[in-house]
Amino acid sequence: MKKGEIYEGIIEKVEFPNKGFVWVDDQKVIVKNGIPGQKVRFMINKKRSGRAEGRLLEVLEKSPLETREPACQEFPACGGCMYQTMSYEAQKEMKECQVRELLDGAVRESLAKIGKNGDVTEEAEAADRLYHWDGIYGSPIEFGYRNKMEFSFGDEYKDGPLSLGLHKKGSTYDILNTDDCKLVHPDMTKILVCVREFFLERNASFYKKLQHVGYLRHLLLRRGVTSGEILVHVVTTTQEEYDLEPLKEQLLALPLEGKIVGIMHILNDSLSDVVQSDETKILYGKDYFYEELLGLKFKISTFSFFQPNSLAAEILYSKVREYVGDTRDKVVFDLYSGTGTIAQLAASVASEVIGVEIVEDAVKAARVNAALNNINNCRFIAGDVLKVLDDVPEKPDVIIDLVDATNIERNLYLTTQLIETGVPVVIALNMADLLEKRGIKIDVERLSMLLNCPIVETSALKGKGLDEVVEEAIKVAKKNTVDLPKEIFSKDVEAAIAEVKNVLPSSISEDKRRWYAVKFLENDSKVAESVVLSGNGAKVVEDNRTKIEKAEDDDMESIVTDGRYQFIQKIVSTTVKKSGEKLTISDKIDRIVTNRILGIPIFIAIMFVVYYISVTTIGTLVTDWTNDTFVAEMIQPAAQSFLEGIGASAAIQDLIVNGIIGGLGAVLGFVPQMAILFLFLSILEDCGYMVRIAFVMDRVFRHFGLSGKSFIPLLISSGCGIPGIMASKTIEQDNDRRLTIMTATFIPCGAKLPVIAMMGGVMTSYVTRSYKAGGLMAPCMYFIGIVAVLVAAIILKKTKPFSGKPAPFVMELPQYHIPSAKTVLLHVWERLKGFIIKAGTILFLACVVMWFLSGYGFVNGSFGAVEDPGNSLLAVIGGAIAPIFAPLGFGNWKAVAASLSGFSAKESIVSTMGVLANITGDASEDAVTVAEAVRTWFPSAVAAFSFLLFNLLDSPCLAAISTMAKEMQSRKWFWFAILFQNIFAYVVTLIVYQIGTFATGGAFTVGTAVGIVLLLVMLFLLFRPDPYKDQKVYSKRSVQA
Fold first, then answer.
1. How many CB atoms lie within 10 A of CB 582?
2. What's this model's pTM, rounded to 2 decimal places?
3. Which of 214, 778, 902, 991 has the greatest number of CB atoms lying within 10 Å of its CB?
4. CA 154 to CA 206: how far, in whole Å?
């Protein structure tokens, strides 16, 4: 059995999710989209590890289960329905079998995990006896049940007329007109036809997902089954504009059973094919409707989650409420609660219901719905479920608090908060094995007594004490009692806590009242939202908070924080003993590498060695072996023989040899050098040194208005600019964060290494006559990038949008350790893999495009292959814009074309140069050869350096640009960043080239004068007084990371 072979067979059964099984010569083949009993023809499209999958081509014979004609005229072409030819009872029976198989398998697996069926026991075989099966319940109505439907705009076949409906079965792009869709109420299909005809008359375009062009995207309809209220949402891009007022009038005039209560125009320019809103315009009415379930009323908005089958949901929720049983004295959690439907239905049989949902709008709607139904024992929390559960005190039976024994003062701060939650706490005192080495002794028994919770010494690294922690946690949980903490704060604060505890709602249990009291005094917004105090209670809290803040002359949150640390210092002073002056190895190393004087020179020396070795010495040896042996003696001869053997045409050989190999080879030849660079950087990161550099550079950056937090993205950008940009999320201030994003790509990433190595050879050839002396340029360009960041920071920090003090930089320095070989190699592979994948995709396409543009053009009025690249299409394009770059020293059209290709990927600069220089075979992978060929493009070493400098500072590759757009979260700031990067690169390069040329013996020209003027302007911007120097506040954050 091989891929591509066609077989016939009968689908014997269908498992969830829709996987049919056909047996062919004792081989089981998965065939999707079939019905048990059908005889089908299918083609094998996957074959691996003994598994085979086939794509359904044709149904040869119907299944005995297919006993009726399809209700919808689009069946079976439409992908919306699968089983219309089966009776509804047969569909339920099939799905019941699928669900039972899943449950039986899950039960057996659970038994195996807990060790109850080491052998195949009767209990394990009869898994169905271990749970109650209540049967399967169908929907009260088989058709027209959906209260929500997303229809897509497109065409049924390529370049066909506009269609609006659902996807063809098995197709990602083809859209069928589903005017007869039976999943929805006829009101919805009438609206669908009206909308499609409206846009057909206006010849509107639909959004093409691959090209990202077009206007119409989706039609989202919501209709209340019980209320009949309808919301209409037309989802489009902003690429075209139409007057939608006539559409509104046509929709409102439709003869519908229900009633349209809202018409919305949703603007969505996202690249992903999902319905989301950048902006929503209400064309008519309101953006919500009402639905009723089991006597409760629910307000549902555009993106609120609500069960799509309202009538079936009533059956489901009734059963849930029945199964839950008597929970009148219990707290019920509704996770992923949406608009709070289940939570409110369970409220009548629970003490309290807590709903958790990540969509804030849905949480707001849930609160509105609870108020609408006069339910007061439900509360809803907005946030990620897993994170919120950590904060909800009702959830855990016991908390295991992992405390770093070697840094106990800082770690106990969280402990003082946890012991107030009313949940039993067991402390795992980790890294206890290092205490003796560091001369630290901890009186564990006394510390346990003072904190009023058990403590177990552990070493996670050595696996010691872990079982004891678990055993202690289980023992504590079974006690069902909580040892509340003794007094932590001053007498005044403790008195205030006692008063606030007395005014809290009765729904809060006694063991949790202290935690809530502290949070109310701290004015915690989330607690205030989730628990409503009476008028008198709120007054008691406010009076106590005001009284303490006035007495202490500080805000309450700081007072509480200070109180915790004073408590910690008090207990640590009596339980922890440290020997005199015993320094760890890490402390001794840090005395040197983080020294105020030696820190930066050591960093410069290390990075110089890293880049120098990566580009020359070892890097060159490995690259030479790759080029001369692996490629020249193995890859190239095989490729050439293959092309000749298959009789490839001259044009195809030219494309592959000159275009693809000539382009990609020039870049892939640098992979060994990049691997060595990434290896060194990964070792420095894993051993703990790179973190120290952020600490050292904080002192430098603070003088220029930034903190060490901004240096971390710059360090990461030395590998790749994309994670560097993403790392800016850790910077709290908007202005510092934006500035860091704008300048992170000034640091040369791995993709720029081939450009640096090659252009370094061109530059040094003017002085030494050798193309192999360019190794020093790599470390030099790294530090030039840092200088560029600082210059840009100084200039921008003296403007209002970027003004403000840098944020305080607090960071824990980990202990130095020997890097893990596995971790280092994984880091190297991940970085290298991204480069290789880009070479096989973006660069491959760039090479083909550049080969075509440079090899074809118009000669004597006719289009075709050209002998002289000067007659090519690329020469025309490059020549048209070359004058713009002439003041920068590279007005040659080939250099300009290579630079422009860098916007697709910086590596493609070298590959484009290889193509334009017409270098073929293994020579295209030798930086020296490529450098020799392109030297004539640059009149001097200064011009070559200017080309390199511009491509270092201008906008990064498209992948990094798209990441910038996402992280900026503002179109205005994104376009400002792109504009600033390119203007800054152009101005700096012009200054360097014009003044550099004059300083090295060139004539004084108008360009020189312009360069001097721009230099003076830049110096003024650098050294002018900062008008915002006395600004005492930190810049605030308004953009969510």
1. 11
2. 0.45
3. 778
4. 6
